[in-house]
Specification:
- The complex is a heterodimer of chains A (169) and B (419).
- Chain A is of the alpha/beta class and 169 residues long.
- Chain A has helices spanning 19-22, 33-38, 48-51, 72-80, 92-101, 109-114, 146-154, 157-164, and strands spanning 5-12, 57-60, 84-87, 105-107, 120-124, 129-132, 138-140.
- Chain A contains 8 helices and 7 strands, in the order βαααβαβαβαβββαα.
- Chain B contains 14 helices and 18 strands.
- The termini of chain B are far apart.
- The chains are: A alpha/beta (169), B alpha/beta (419).
- Bound molecules: iron/sulfur cluster.
């Protein structure tokens, strides 16, 4: 469930982490999440997918997920078991794709700035509170508009649609 | 309430009188597009919804172009999945190789785009169709799946930016340079979540093909859409592709913009975007000596006949540098045919270029010209991210067609003036 609090360690990345870095095109001959997860973030850090542990977080700078519309990017990250991405800002299509597949993202310039690599953090996705257990600081992410919260709560756009339009089934 | 053309299209498709920035709306779509990378996950999601039919058999466009003709077994499976899906639901617009093209070049050329339309595509460069006064934007596979089932999509109404171009274009400056220059000025997130409207006397004189090149790269500034007003040039183009009935839409004179950018194009020379961001632009004259291994002319940005003519002008009677591989990719079958009719094919082959069937191919490091470690390419494509054209340690420099062609001859990044 997305609404649970989650805790894990932080991997930091810079500005403009594009979708080719998140999942290079050479791996797009499949859309299998487990396959994609193996190569997540490969061109930014070739060992990342092996080093990271499920539950961890990515904290990045501006414009995370810029570039192509490939939903494979949030799918790959979600399938690694990553808890969420916290960034100063997100590129538009990545933002909507993450919401549509029910993968948590949080926008917080302060958290993106101050949280350090390796810090242990805890995130409450319902309230958008980010607690840095290493530094003891707390941050508040931008809340999502109600409509998007509903999609996230439903577990993604498809599940939301099935709830909204029973006639579609 | 004064509105921009973007706001008017969004409002109309949401059944509203106006659309204010920030407003969340649900819109009817006129066209839903997917390619061989993004359609397979969309098809899987579509099947999960459990509907028995698509919202409209004629309004869904499936174009296998990225790894087509299938480059390996996995790609063949992805394209097969699209083909079978199209058959199962009676989707008319599935494009097999032999009658296809790169999606964003193919759709306008076949008359699938009308001014005032609202188009979504599971491909970020879907913003290309703004050149014809349509609202079009890239979405993900789940959005594509939902729209195929419901014919609807949710949007946050974007804020509006206006870009005004005045002055006299320098020699060899193309639409590509205007958009590269603009991205260089505002950055890769300078228009994030926003609408980019392109206007001014310079734009009025641009051909529709050139406008397609500019709208194509709106996403490279983070834009939600790029759009142009409808004028005599638009009408002429539409007549040629047999589009006859469409609304005439304009931005109101007193429409509100978050920001207006004014550029004097006389100051703009051909641009080269260095690795690894499209915003990392430099005037070609200040490029220094950068040796290249490959030059790629094509893609949804610059693979139309107008582009091929520029390339031919430069390559006629010349030879590609022995250390360079020049790959030319016409964006559609029609472009290829026209190249043959006009004798461009012969010019290219005699110059020592490799000319391919329409495909995205090397643009995304897929096939037909992938870079090895340490190699450098100049390309008329739209992205130069790390590893975009192959090995993570290869480099891509973006330019217009004339510069890419001249560089192929010179063996280094060069202006046509240097030849
Ligand atoms: S040519 Fe390049 S940018 Fe255009 S659709 Fe194909 S891969 Fe994408």
């Amino acid at each position: 469930m997305l609404t649970h609090g989650r805790s894990g360690h932080v991997w930091k990345f810079g500005n403009n982490i594009d979708t080719d870095l998140i999942i290079p095109a050479r791996y797009l001959t499949t859309s299998d999440p487990v396959e994609l997860a193996k190569n997540a973030m490969e061109d930014a850090d070739p060992e990342w997918a092996d080093k990271m542990n499920p539950g961890d977080f990515i904290v990045a700078g501006d414009n995370f997920g810029c570039g192509s519309s490939r939903e494979h990017a949030p799918i790959a990250l979600k399938a690694t078991g990553l808890s969420a991405v916290i960034a100063r800002s997100f590129a538009r299509i990545f933002y909507r794709n993450a919401i549509n597949i029910g993968f948590p993202i949080l926008e917080s310039p302060e958290a993106a700035e101050e949280i350090k690599e390796g810090d242990e953090i805890e995130v409450d996705l319902t309230s958008g509170t980010i607690k840095d257990l290493t530094s003891g600081k707390t941050y508040q992410a931008q809340p999502f508009p109600e409509f998007m919260q509903k999609i996230i709560k439903a577990g993604g756009l498809i599940k939301y649609l099935r709830q909204q339009h029973p006639q579609l089934r | 309430m004064a509105q921009t053309i973007t706001q008017k299209i969004l409002a109309k498709h949401a059944g509203l009188r106006s659309a204010e920035p920030g407003q969340l709306i649900n819109c009817k779509v006129d066209l839903v597009l997917g390619n061989d990378i993004t359609s397979p996950p969309a098809i899987k999601e579509f099947e999960r919804i459990g509907v028995s039919k698509v919202f409209d058999k004629k309004k869904i466009f499936l174009v296998p172009d990225h790894f087509a003709p299938a480059k390996d077994i996995k790609s063949a499976e992805q394209i097969k999945m699209m083909r079978e899906f199209a058959h199962k639901y009676g989707i008319v617009n599935f494009f097999e190789i032999g009658c296809m093209g790169i999606e964003h070049a193919l759709l306008p050329e076949m008359g699938a785009i009308k001014p005032g339309d609202l188009i979504i595509g599971a491909d970020s460069h879907t913003c290309t169709y703004g050149a014809l006064g349509a609202f079009s934007t890239g979405v993900g596979s789940t959005d594509m799946a939902a729209a195929m089932a419901t014919g609807e999509v949710w949007f946050k109404v974007p804020e509006q930016l206006k870009f005004v171009y005045t002055g006299k274009l320098q020699k060899w400056v193309e639409a590509k340079d205007l958009i590269l220059y603009t991205i260089g000025q505002i950055g890769v997130d300078g228009a994030r979540y926003m609408s980019m409207e392109f206007t001014g006397p310079v734009i009025d004189k641009l051909s529709i093909e050139s406008r397609l090149t500019m709208a194509n790269m709106a996403i490279e500034a983070g834009g939600k859409n790029g759009i142009f007003g409808i004028d005599a040039k638009t009408k002429q183009y539409l007549t040629k592709v047999h589009v006859t009935r469409y609304p005439l839409l304009y931005s109101d004179k007193d429409a509100e913009y978050k920001q207006i950018y004014d550029y004097d194009v006389a100051e703009i020379e051909p641009q080269v975007a260095y690795p690894h961001l499209p915003s990392n632009t430099h005037p070609v004259s200040k490029s220094g000596h950068i040796k290249i291994d490959q030059s790629v002319i094509g893609s949804c940005t610059n693979g139309r006949i107008e582009d091929m003519r520029v390339a031919a002008k430069i390559l006629k009677g010349k030879k590609v540098h022995p250390d360079v591989r020049l790959i030319i990719l016409p964006a559609t079958q029609n472009v290829e045919l026209q190249m043959i009719k006009e004798g461009l094919m012969e010019i290219f082959i005699k110059a020592g270029a490799s000319v391919s069937t329409p495909t995205c191919g090397p643009c995304l490091g897929g096939h037909m010209g992938v870079l090895a470690e340490g190699e450098k390419a100049i390309a008329t494509t739209n992205r130069n991210f790390v590893g975009r054209m192959g090995h993570p340690k290869s480099e891509v420099y973006l330019s217009n067609v004339a510069v890419a062609a001249a560089s192929a001859v010179a063996g280094r990044i060069a202006s046509p003036e240097d030849l």
